[in-house]
From TrEMBL:
Biased composition (Polar residues): 225-235
Keyword Metal-binding carried by entry: yes
Cofactor list: Mg(2+)
Protein name per the record: Demethylmenaquinone methyltransferase
Residues the entry annotates as binding substrate: G327, D328, I329, M330, R349
Binding-site residues, Mg(2+): D350
Organism from which the protein derives: Bionectria ochroleuca
Listed Gene3D superfamilies: Ribonuclease E inhibitor RraA/RraA-like
Keyword Magnesium: yes
Entry keyword set: Magnesium, Metal-binding
One MF term in the entry's GO annotations: metal ion binding
CDD domains (alphabetical): RraA_family
Region span, Disordered: 220-240
């Protein structure tokens, strides 16, 4: 009964809260890079370990023996698998066998997996590094069940606890689980208090620095919050508003072509949308640069009160993927303040909140570990680097499902005019080919090969 209660408690928490609890307790458990292999449910359970290793000889191929697995795995367990070769998957038989016999809640694979369609069809939650195009058991052999594994840089033991969701995967030592759950539940309660205060209209800096809301208390009650208007008094200048309007109807592909034609470097390599956004996000850049934390630690999010309506927050965290600089409170507050979106040279967390709120986020990835006590704000509204692109405050950001581009403010009108011309020409080409013209003829008429060529 105690085990079921523990798993139920773990299932109600997201990986962000659990990872924060591990941080507070000084426990290593969050691993980066193990993502859902399909749009699968979250998982929480006890660990059953399996190790694969490279074969040392040419012994015949035999299916992995799952007899030992049945002895170490019961309902409530999650199969955790290590080993493998780059580009090769070898764990399908073990996962499918355990899932179909109702012995596991899902699988976490520190490696690649080939049979994604199978686990998707069977509704088996599967998390791993990615998908392999081939499965080659001729090079791999099953090792041991039930022994400690190293998953990335975390040592995982049989019967430890694991939870995984869209933000990542976290392991908790079995002997510390109750302690971790107590702290995580208090963190979750505090997060709810913060959300209530934000909804009531209190400024983010006020809420995040309120001593009463810093106390982590699972049984505490929400304090009365002073209600104020969520309207944002900071507005764009008429000039900036005009530039944004000119770019509102062009996508990043056209803007990128225009930048190429004008010899401007503005494409942010590796910064991608959180989901397949249907609309284009456009706005002036409000720049923020993070630095490693000092002593005493500085702030991590108070700048948000100074961001204007329609601005795009552009954060340079040096491309770090080991800690996040944007979460659900920031998403909620930004949405209430009419902020257009956020671009991060780094990672975010609480992705379900951003997706549910339809708040545009463009990042190098997402993970659940907090940036608090790891990084702090070093500068606001100074030049920052997003990949190889220098971004100045007030530069125009254009972002959509294709990625992110930045336009120097003083050249935004020129870029917008060229981008509009490119889109009009491409629309004309599409009309001609629908009417029966050859692609070569349509391109010739609209001078397609000169559209992106630098003048």
């Amino acid at each position: 009964m105690v085990q079921l209660d523990t798993l139920d408690r773990l299932s109600t928490l997201d990986t962000n809260a659990v990872a924060d609890a591990l941080d507070l307790l000084g426990i290593k458990g969050a691993v980066y890079g193990l993502r859902p292999l399909w749009n699968c449910p979250n998982i929480a359970g006890r660990v059953s370990t399996v190790k694969f290793q490279i074969k040392a000889d040419a012994t015949p191929i035999v299916p992995p023996d799952t007899t030992a697995l049945s002895e170490t795995t019961t309902d409530g367990h999650v199969l955790v698998i290590s080993g493998g070769i780059d580009g090769v998957s070898c764990s399908e038989f073990v996962v499918n066998s355990a899932w179909k016999s109702n012995r596991i809640r899902g699988a976490v694979i520190d490696g690649l997996y080939q049979a994604v369609d199978d686990v998707h069809e069977d509704r088996c939650p599967a998390y791993g590094r990615g998908v392999a195009s081939i499965s080659d058991c001729s090079e791999m052999m099953q090792g041991d069940f039930g022994l400690p594994l190293k998953i990335r840089d975390v040592i995982v033991h049989q019967d430890d606890y694991v939870t995984a969701d869209s933000s990542g995967t976290v392991f908790v030592p079995a002997k510390r689980i109750e302690e971790v759950l107590d702290v995580a539940e208090r963190i979750n309660h505090r997060r709810n208090l913060l959300a209530e205060a934000i909804e009531a209209g209190r400024p983010a800096s006020d809420v995040m620095n309120d001593p009463e809301l810093q106390v982590i208390s699972r049984d505490g009650r929400s304090q009365a919050v002073a209600v104020s208007s969520n309207s944002n008094p900071k507005k764009s200048t008429p000039e900036t508003h005009g530039l944004v309007s000119m770019l509102a109807d062009v996508d990043t592909a056209a803007v990128s072509d225009a930048l190429d034609k004008l010899g401007i470097c503005g494409q942010a390599l590796g910064i991608m949308p959180l989901e397949n956004y249907q609309k284009v996000t456009v706005g002036p850049a409000f720049t923020v640069r993070y630095v490693p934390v000092g002593q005493p630690a500085g702030s991590v999010g108070d700048f948000i009160d100074d961001v204007g309506e329609g601005d795009v927050v552009v954060i340079d965290n040096g491309g770090r993927t080991d800690c996040t600089v944007w979460g659900d409170i920031m998403t909620q507050y930004a949405g209430l303040r009419g902020i257009a979106g956020t671009v991060i040279n780094g990672v975010c967390r609480d992705v379900n909140r951003a997706i549910g709120d339809q708040y545009p986020l463009f990042t190098a990835g997402h993970w659940m570990r907090t940036g608090k006590d790891r990084v702090e704000v070093g500068a606001v509204n100074e030049p920052v680097a997003i990949g190889a692109v220098r971004v100045n405050p007030g530069d125009i950001v254009v972002a959509d499902a294709n990625g992110v581009v930045f336009i120097p403010h003083h050249r935004a009108r020129e870029v917008a005019e060229v981008a509009q011309l490119i889109e009009q020409s491409e629309a004309g080409i599409r009309e001609m080919i629908v009417d029966g013209a050859t692609l070569a003829k349509a391109r010739e008429v609209f001078k397609y090969h000169q559209l992106q060529r630098t003048e």
